[in-house]
């Protein structure tokens, strides 16, 4: 039985960006051959440095970016082959929580109307049915009924993120994409939102794709982790695989950068140099310009996925037989 809700196959996304002071545009290769499976009811996290392509991948799954190649299967249907009408129907099952709750809520709309909008657009429900769903959803995310008649500016940052989460859940989606859902919040309220996401996943069997650079959030929330480097997944495994037995030199370097999450074996790999420009991808293994174990073949050939265990894969020549 296929247990996947989302499958991304050989996905490529390019976009044009300004060259800055030199004028003209350049082609950014943001996602480069990603293969990924998100299983029903799991939280899959994607981690990597800023600029690694994780947000572009999320936007491509939401169809906010147009991939140049590949497949994005949702419930076995390819989102890239759907007409506008077909996409509209399936969209209510795919919702997104954005990084900044200040920017994602309309300041002129009362919370009730903000939550009502997607139901009006996507369903034929009566006013009474809509009211019931809105009140139930507000309760799910820990908001009182009284909050519904207020405006966004009357809430704290944490409450606004609860409202943004309620808006994502009001259509009862199967899949939620959370892009840095706590990074714009004060540290004191991040834990509340993290706990809320965990509760929602456990109580409502939701499937999440969590995009974040914060490895402590991943360690607490996720079931599996994909490590992304220059637009490709270089290692994927369960939280235990990645945090207790990391294999790819880039994963080890990322973990070493966070003092309280260093891996057990404490192999010190420090990230050297800057992330190369995605406009000018290195040949072979894209990590070779920063890898302390680089070999000649790393510069010439692209490593394939190597199974470390049934749940754990990495792309690195060091693990070839
Ligand atoms: Fe380093 Fe080579 Fe492995 Fe790439 S394939 S991570 S360059 S050892």
Q: Secondary structure elements and their pairing?
A:
Elements: E1 4-18, E2 25-39, E3 43-47, H1 54-61, E4 69-74, E5 77-78, H2 84-91, E6 94-97, H3 101-104, H4 111-122, H5 127-140, H6 157-169, E7 175-179, H7 187-204, E8 207-211, H8 215-221, E9 224-229, E10 232-238, H9 239-244, H10 249-256, H11 296-300, E11 306-309, E12 312-314
Parallel strand pairs: 3-8, 3-9, 6-7, 7-8
Antiparallel strand pairs: 1-2, 1-4, 4-5, 9-10, 10-12, 11-12
Helix pairs in contact: 5-6, 6-7
What would you note in describing this structure?
There is one protein chain. This protein is an alpha/beta fold and 321 residues long. It has a single domain, classed as P-loop containing nucleotide triphosphate hydrolases (Rossmann fold, 3-Layer(aba) Sandwich). It is built from 11 helices and 12 strands. The chain has helices at residues 54-61, 84-91, 101-104, 111-122, 127-140, 157-169, 187-204, 215-221, 239-244, 249-256, 296-300; strands at 4-18, 25-39, 43-47, 69-74, 77-78, 94-97, 175-179, 207-211, 224-229, 232-238, 306-309, 312-314. The strands form 2 sheets. Strands 6-7-8-3-9-10-12-11 form an 8-stranded mixed beta sheet, with helices on both faces. It has a 4-stranded antiparallel beta sheet with strand order 2-1-4-5, covered by helices on one side. β9 and β10 form a beta hairpin. α6 (157-169) packs parallel to α7. It is globular. It starts with a strand and ends in a 7-residue tail after the last strand. The relative contact order is 0.14. The mean pLDDT is 90. It binds iron/sulfur cluster. Iron/sulfur cluster binds at residues 248-249, 285, 287-288, 291, 293-295, 298, 303, 316-318.
């Amino acid at each position: 039985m296929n247990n996947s809700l989302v499958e991304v196959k050989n996905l490529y996304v390019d976009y044009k960006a300004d060259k800055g002071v030199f004028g003209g545009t350049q082609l950014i290769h943001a996602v480069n051959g990603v293969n990924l499976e998100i299983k029903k009811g799991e939280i899959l996290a994607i981690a990597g440095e800023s600029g690694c392509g994780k947000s572009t991948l999320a936007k491509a799954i939401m169809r906010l970016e147009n991939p140049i190649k590949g497949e994005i299967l949702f419930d076995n249907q390819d989102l890239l082959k759907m007409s506008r009408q077909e996409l509209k129907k399936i969209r209510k099952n795919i919702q997104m929580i954005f990084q900044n709750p200040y920017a994602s809520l309309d300041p002129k709309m009362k919370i009730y109307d903000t939550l009502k909008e997607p139901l009006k657009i996507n369903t034929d429900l009566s006013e009474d049915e809509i009211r019931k769903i809105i009140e139930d959803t507000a309760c799910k995310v820990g908001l009182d009924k009284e909050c519904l008649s207020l405006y966004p500016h009357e809430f704290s940052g944490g409450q606004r993120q609860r409202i943004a989460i309620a808006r994502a859940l009001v259509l009862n989606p199967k899949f939620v994409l959370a892009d840095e859902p706590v990074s714009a919040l004060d540290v004191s309220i991040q834990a509340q939102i993290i706990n809320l996401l965990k509760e929602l996943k456990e109580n409502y069997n939701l499937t999440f794709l969590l995009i974040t650079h914060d490895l402590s959030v991943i360690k607490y929330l996720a079931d599996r982790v994909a490590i992304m480097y220059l637009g490709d997944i270089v290692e994927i495994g369960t939280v235990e695989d990645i945090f207790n037995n990391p294999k790819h030199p880039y994963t080890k370097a990322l973990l070493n950068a966070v003092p309280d999450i260093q891996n057990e074996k404490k192999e010190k790999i420090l990230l050297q140099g800057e992330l190369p420009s995605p406009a000018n991808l290195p040949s072979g293994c894209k990590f070779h310009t920063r890898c302390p174990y680089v070999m000649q073949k790393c510069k010439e050939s692209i490593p394939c996925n190597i199974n470390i265990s049934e749940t754990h894969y990495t792309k690195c020549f060091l693990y070839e037989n």
